[in-house]
From TrEMBL:
Superkingdom of origin organism: Eukaryota
Protein name: Unnamed protein product
Length: 501
């Protein structure tokens, strides 16, 4: 049975009472052109574990947004002419400061996002890793020489930064989604304006403080927190303002479509990492224990609130019973509770809307014949947004959970009988971000890996993300790649010079 912890925690009523090694990381203003600015309009940030108030954060004014854009434009005039080695050193400074402050940054993430402290610390290290990676990639932005058909000509290509980048990030990885974008942009020579999610602005503002300490030039990394109502206005401003040359967005497919439409008027560069509906396939020859652990990792990380979470578990009929019983037993050993409790493995959902979707998917599935093998209920005694980690058996394709991304802690298990059938079911979706499969037949690395219509595949692993991997999807999961050597290309233009001899 899933374990709960209700132990009272101290020091979480407001940010001023949190014990941090570096209290300067706790910021609530806008960070524009290297300065901290405030105004009378604020919005409240709460701890999703208990709805206690954490802070009142400045709701950046439209004038402030325009100032941030203008400072990015002015700073770009300087930054684009710096050497890659200079940008590399600044990113490395930033990386080292993040690692030195890892415990504090993790505590901030746990308080505003709800994920357990161990997961939050993992995110901080993952987040810092992007700064290190792009520090190493910055000096390796190469052009080409191309043979010309004309013997008297020489063709040279150069990669130049696109300019000012508008960065729009989600609440589920409030640190990593910023550094993954900013690191690549800055390495290429671009300046950035970050609009963090209104649920989790404190992590972004802590990064802004460290960027200043690292020596990132003023105006190159602006952070403009706004509330949910103003988020729509700022998103449209970013897309329509011709001073912003590129948009990088991580979020839902529906919002991505809106931003893409709004960007059409200025034909700016865009890269989107959008929704997922990841299949997780267990073949009859799989190592079942390894597959169960992979399912725990890929399905229940952050209580199912990641874009690469497994959403549909397809299990071969010959191993269905063994896998289902072992997964339910493994889930029962996990601990649900407030993230600052070190015994906790899984925290709350982010808000009521997320909780209601989990409830809706379970109710719909059970009404159509699914069986609850583990969990199944909300846990209001822990807090308003806690829900048990849930395993559903006998799931069929007429249930909502087979087609909609849950973004919550439900593992629906669907039987299949052959490879062709499971590939057809796995690809029967409009999105294609990630997919997973477990098999000891290594010929399937290519057969199944190539057949899954997704951007990323995990074979015999439930953990795929790291700075060196190209992250992104196909179909309505978006376009462009983040992380890896490829992502800097998203922030550069190729210029060609033809030289006549």
């Amino acid at each position: 049975m899933l374990r709960y912890t209700t132990r009272k925690l101290t020091g979480i009523r407001c940010l001023s009472t949190i014990s941090l090694k570096n209290p300067e990381l706790l910021k609530t203003g806008s960070f524009i052109n290297g300065k901290w600015l405030t105004n009378d309009e604020t919005f409240q940030v709460n701890n999703p574990a208990n709805l206690e108030k954490l802070a009142d954060v400045t709701n950046t004014s439209i004038h402030g947004i325009n100032s941030a854009i203008e400072s990015s434009v002015d700073s770009f005039k300087y930054l684009k002419d710096t050497t890659p080695r200079i940008r590399s050193q600044l990113l490395l400074n930033f990386y080292k400061l993040m690692m030195d402050s890892a415990d504090d940054l993790a505590k901030i993430i746990t308080l505003e996002n709800g994920k357990p402290l161990a997961d939050a610390l993992g995110e901080v290290k993952y987040s810092a890793g992007f700064l290190q990676w792009f520090a190493e990639e910055a000096p390796r932005i190469y052009g080409d020489t191309i043979p010309s058909a004309n013997p008297n000509n020489r063709i040279l290509t150069f990669k130049q930064p696109v300019g000012v980048v508008g960065i729009l990030t989600p609440w589920n990885f409030p640190s990593a989604m910023i550094t993954r974008k900013f690191g690549a942009a800055f390495a290429a020579g671009c300046t950035s304006i970050v609009k963090p999610a209104c649920e989790t602005p404190l992590s972004a503002l802590a990064l802004a403080h460290l960027s200043k300490e690292a020596g990132i030039p003023d105006g190159c990394f602006n952070v403009v927190p706004v509330d949910s109502e103003k988020t729509k206005i700022v998103g449209e401003m970013f897309c329509s303002d011709k001073r912003i040359n590129k948009i990088s967005f991580t979020g839902s497919t529906n919002i991505g479509k809106i931003l893409m439409s709004q960007s059409a008027s200025s034909l700016k560069r865009i890269s989107f990492e959008l929704g997922g509906n990841a299949p997780f396939i267990v073949f009859e020859d799989a190592d079942i224990d390894k597959a169960v652990q992979g399912a725990i990792t890929s399905k229940f990380r952050s209580s199912g609130q990641t874009c690469v979470c497994a959403n549909r578990l397809y299990v071969h009929e010959k191993v269905y019973d063994e896998f289902s019983s072992k997964l339910a037993a493994a889930v029962g050993k996990l601990t649900l509770g407030p993230g600052l409790d070190l015994s906790v493995t899984h925290g709350p959902l982010i808000h009521e809307k997320a909780l209601n979707k989990v409830k809706e998917h379970i109710t719909d599935a059970v009404s159509k014949g699914a069986k609850i093998l583990a969990g199944g209920n909300a846990v209001p005694e822990l807090g308003p947004f806690f829900h048990e980690l849930t395993v559903l058996g006998d799931v069929t394709h007429d249930m909502k959970i087979s087609h909609e991304e849950t973004f919550g802690p439900i593992a629906p298990i669907i039987k299949f009988s052959n490879d062709e059938q499971v590939i057809e079911m796995a690809n029967d979706t409009d999105v294609g971000l990630s997919g997973y499969f477990f098999s000891q037949d290594y010929s399937k690395i290519f057969k199944i890996g190539e057949a899954l219509n997704v951007g990323m595949v995990g074979c015999n692993t439930g953990a795929i993300s790291e700075a060196s991997m190209p992250f992104g999807g196909v179909k309505e999961s978006g376009f462009g790649r983040e992380g890896s050597k490829y992502s800097i290309q998203e922030y550069t233009n190729i210029k060609t010079i033809v030289v006549g001899l």
